[in-house]
Structures are given as structure tokens and as C-alpha cells.
Amino acid sequence: MKKSAIVVDSTTPIPSWLDESVPVFSVPVRVYIDGQEYKDCLEIQDKIIQAINEDRNIETSLPSPNDVEELLEKLSNEYDKVYVLSVSSHLSGTYNLFSTIASKYENIVVFDSKTISIQNTYILERMVENIKAGKVLEENDIISYRDDSLFLITVFSLSRLEKSGRIGKLISIIGKILHVKPILSIARTGEVELVGKALGKTKISEIIFEKIEEFLKGEVNDVILYAAVGTDAYKEFIFEIGKFLDIKPLFFPIGSAVLAHVGFDGFGFVVGKRKLNRQ
């Protein structure tokens, strides 16, 4: 059997239970706090949280080209096929960086996931499962995995998203004036999309349940629920969703780079239409 590997960047949480026969490698994006560079990892989260609380300047940048070049060259020599799963090209220049460097190697293919974070985690698991089964992955497979999942994000404070340019200023201004809590998703084009607005917790839950029902269309017997929360206070929403679906949620930490953009006043979750074979 040919050996394959997968590369992601650090905005994609990697589950501990993935089959090790298809190794996954992560390239850290770069985070800047008042101009000081750090590599994205859980160890710098305390610095990110402190910087957010102090309203300091936080920026993110692509992974180091040298880091990407070094890893892809190494993997190209060690594996028959290397798949690179990039965050949406509409949200980051990471896809262009990966593509430019990967073009030097015939056995490396780069996919634009058109999404980010824990939805990429779901896609990653599907990739591992199908590679293990002997499938050669193509762009349509990535699109199919993505379409099998629903990614919703609720943000209770828009300041970090506005500063990062990930949400329109008009939406931010409306939210601040009316105290509206936006419910966001990532459109199939890979751009941030407003899918609902709510004033209170009850309405947020109502909209979320409506979107889930619309997505699943009654197919509730074989689903997964992944979540990431800014603080434990938001876990109550996730447990409500788990109760609604009659499944136990699995929580992932928010990576430092993502936290820098969204802050910790909110939560996100992914509902996947099919369960996965875990070790």
C-alpha cells in the first residue's frame, strides 16, 4: 500500500484519535502581539488572552515559508502522496503559500477547504478514513466532506472580528447599536456569512436548532457534534445542542491564531452527517 500523509496549519485542531497509519503534520501560523512574533500553539494562549483583555494589538500572519518549504520537501521524499488541507483562500493567504511551494513537487496536492477551524477537523477525519481505505483524494471529495457538515458560530462581542477585518463594519455597528448577537457560518465560497441575528439566548437556540433541522432534514441517527468555546460559560449552548441531537459533544480548544480574531466571547460548533471510525 502506498504511504500518504496530510498537512494542515495550526488553525485546524487535530484529534488525538486519528489513525496513525495516515500521519498528520501541522504548520504553525504566526501571531504578533504588539509586533512581537510567536508561533501559534496552545502554550501562547495565556499571552493571547492577556493581550485581548488589555485590548492590545494582535495580528496573525501566514506560516513561515521556510517552515512550509522544509516540511513539504521532507514529506515529499518520505511519502508517495502528500495532501495539504488549507484554510479558506478567502480568509487567509495560506492556500496561495502552500500552492506555490507545493508546485515544486509532483506528489503533493493542495486543497482549498473553503472553511476553517473545527469544520476542517471534520474534513480531516474524513480524509484520513478514506485514505486508509485506499482512496486517492480529489477536490470533489473535499467539497463533499464539507457539504456533509454544518458550521455555525455565535459571537457575543464583535470587536475582535471587526479589528481583524473578518466581519463587515456595517454588521458590527448594527450589532453594537441593537445588541444583536450574529450567528455566522462559512459560505460555500469560503467567505464569512451572516445566517441569523438574535437578541437573547432563547432566540439564539431557536435559530441554531432551525438551522440544524434544515441541514439534517431528519437524518439524525448518524451524526457527530464538535465544538469550541471561548469560555466554559458557553458550554451550556453546546450541551443544549447535544441534547437536541441526543449525542455527546466533543470539545476542541480554540487555537491561538483563531482566538486572536474572534476573542473568547462566543462559541462555534460543527454537526457532521456521519460518524467516523475511531481508534
What keywords describe this structure?
Hypothetical Protein Tm841, Chain: A,domain 3, alpha/beta, 24% strand, 6-stranded mixed sheet, 4-stranded parallel sheet, 2 domains, Rossmann fold, 279 residues, single chain, 13 strands
Summarize the structure.
The chain is α/β, with parallel strands linked by helices. The chain is 38% helix and 24% strand.
Strand and helix layout:
Blueprint: E1 4-9, E2 24-27, E3 30-33, E4 36-39, H1 45-53, E5 58-61, H2 65-78, E6 81-86, H3 94-102, E7 108-112, H4 117-132, H5 139-147, E8 149-155, H6 159-164, H7 169-178, E9 181-186, E10 192-198, H8 201-216, E11 224-229, H9 235-245, E12 250-251, H10 256-262, E13 266-272
Parallel strand pairs: 1-2, 1-6, 6-7, 11-12
Antiparallel strand pairs: 3-4, 3-5, 8-9, 8-13, 9-10, 11-13
Helix pairs in contact: 2-3, 4-5
The profile of the biggest β sheet is: 6 strands, mixed
Compute the number of helices: 10
Q: What structural class do you assign from the helix and strand content?
A: alpha/beta
> How many angstroms does the end-to-end distance come to?
20 Å
Which shape, going by the Cα principal axes?
globular
What's the number of extended β-strand segments? 13
Strand order of the largest sheet: 10-9-8-13-11-12
Q: What's the CATH architecture of the largest domain?
A: 3-Layer(aba) Sandwich
How much β-strand is present in the residues?
Answer: 15-25%
In the CATH scheme, what's the topology name of the largest domain? Rossmann fold
- Overall radius of gyration: 19 Å
Give the uncertain stretches in residue-range form. none
